[in-house]
Design a protein that fits this description.
The chain is of the alpha+beta class. Helix content is 35%, strand content 16%. It comes from Carnobacterium antarcticum.
Length: 69
């Protein structure tokens, strides 16, 4: 799939490419993972699909960057 197609999938908030050639998608909610897996595997086999929770650093950036109440 093209990057534009991946970014258009429901729940995808960000896309980045790693130096290893992997495509990493950030999701607004982990629940979108199953739907995205079904879409990207329709075109055939993909060698890697892994859904990871955010790291502590990513959580901190999300929370520290959010407006304070």
């Amino acid at each position: 799939m093209k990057d534009e197609d991946l970014l258009a999938l429901p729940g995808v908030t960000h896309l980045k490419k790693t130096k290893d050639g992997l495509t990493v998608l950030d999701l607004s909610d982990a629940e979108y993972g199953k739907e995205i897996f079904e879409v990207v595997t329709k075109e055939g086999y993909i060698s890697t699909f892994s859904q990871q929770p955010p790291t502590l650093e990513e959580i901190f950036r999300l929370k520290a960057g959010a407006p304070h109440e």
